[in-house]
Design a protein that fits this description.
globular; mainly beta; Rieske_2Fe-2S_sf; four-stranded antiparallel β-sheet
Length: 105
Amino acid sequence: MQEPWIEVCDSNDIEEEDVIRFDYGSVTLAVYRSDKNAFYATNGYCTHERVHLSDGLVMGNIIECPKHNGRFDYTTGQAKKTPACDALQTYPVKVTGGKVYVRIE
């Protein structure tokens, strides 16, 4: 059975090229808005040392961890710069009626 879509925020709550933290139960996500006005979600913690990515810097489609500057492509989850080696889990996102929704699988 597929999990339901969970409302995260209004689409205007995330600036372009920015990220916010979203907690749902035991799951912590980072939710991004690209410079092309598309929305994405990944696991909220860096795979290197479990630092929250919402405190990081978004540059294009890259999120940079605030602790050791590891980088990930948040559109795919792929690790792009050491010390981050393991990919981030990504989650489906949709925008309906000005609201951002994520599906936590």
